[in-house]
Amino acid sequence: MHNHVLQILVLCLSAAISADGETCSGIVPMRHRAENISITDFGGVGDGETVNTAAFAAAIKKIEQLRSEGGTVLYIPPGVYLTERFNLTSKMTLFLAKDAVIKATQDTLDWPLADPLPSYGRGRERPGGRYMSFILGDGVHDIIITGENGTIDGQGGVWWNMWRRRTLRYTRPHLIEFMHSSQVIISNVILKNSPFWNIHPVYCSYFVAQYVTILAPADSPNTDGIDPDSSSNVCIEDSYISTGDDLIAIKSGWDEYGIAYGRPSSNITIRRVKGSSPYAGIAVGSETSGGVEHVLAEHINLFNMGVGIHIKTKVGRGGFIRNITVSDVHIKNARRGIKISGDVGDHPDDRFNPNAIPVVEGITMKNIRGEKIRQPGLIKGIKNAPFTSICLYDVNLNGSIAEITTWECSDVEGSSVKVSPWPCSELISRQGTGSCSIQT
User: Could you say which residues form the signal peptide (predicted)?
Assistant: First the structure.
């Protein structure tokens, strides 16, 4: 069994080399583990009824004791392994075989709590702390979650109903979260029914998510797909996401707490992602108080969307959003194609600084096509603090004949070339001059 695991692991990691050429390969080294253990070695039973919390805890402890220089694979064979939440450790691979399922228990009464993130100051949904994530890596490095497209199931329905009934005491748990961690790969797994956000790397560096499928019902509340948060050198590619909220949302802290923490999200690449959501496909914000910069999103395919591309912030956020490039996007059937807005989101408390005005500059949208788009775009800056260097090039967001509408713009400066329907007058038509350097 152990040699079989190693062979499969090599195949899965090798599959990360895309036929399109550019990949995340090299951002995080691929590891071939020296040791292999199975959850069944520790009493794990995959019958869908036995609670395997003790088995996971014992297996993780064994990995820590082995201290193998090359690390250890924890193999999850076919079956349904019910468990309470658990932590990961450094230098390990969590490998899910084909037809293996790690399923969260639905007992919320004894779910442990964690302190709020310092860049948020409180739970994102409720004041105070937050429920700990189902799978958590805190202060770890060299972690791989992969397999033969096995499943991690958060059984989020009980949490969604608590949110709908307003009976939540604390903020819901993420499905997978890494904090203060580096050299992380998540690949070749299916994530479904997360209680809250699916994948949340926060205060991390060198983080890769590729060949991941993320699923949740369209009406499931706040089930964001992947949310890089105050993290750098992140690559997300070749994935399918269909959830009840933003597919990918880049964040960096909330109002005065994010400003004080001061850790931006930077150097983030998103490519070859496909999916649908009643909210946004690729989003920045709205929590961007630590700043977001140097983002590239390309070759994105979106359908049945609320908004295709959404950049969002608010007075009181502070921080900056700059050097964002979105290119080669296809959007089919959306309420709005592009939205860049300075009046989106709420505040953690009444102590935010009303003079903390976010800076939004250097946003480029190019080679974007839309079908059945009800409203092409809205760009609404902040009064006396306009968004600047907003550049649109080769953007076609026409709806049906009966739905052709105009762009809405205010407090924005920038340029446009080859845009249909023709955008607002604030985006001056240029050909490679001024604030927009795109050449025709």
Answer: 1-21
Q: CA–CA separation, 392 vs 324, rounded Å?
A: 12
Q: Do 234 and 269 contact (CB within 8 A), yes or no?
A: yes
Residue 350 is among the residues annotated as catalytic for this protein: no
What's the pTM? 0.94
Domain ranges of the chain: 1-235, 246-440
Q: Are 309 and 337 in contact (CB under 8 A)?
A: yes
Residue 276: strand, helix, or coil: strand
Q: Which of 227, 229, 245, 255 is catalytic?
A: 245
pLDDT of residue 425: 85
| Residues composing the chain | 440
pLDDT, one tens digit per residue, over 45-56 is 999 999 999 999
Q: Which CATH superfamily is domain 246-440 in?
A: Single-stranded right-handed beta-helix, Pectin lyase-like (2.160.20.10)
CA–CA separation, 253 and 157 (whole Å): 27
| pLDDT tens-digit readout, 398-440 | 875 556 578 999 999 999 999 999 888 888 765 544 446 544 3
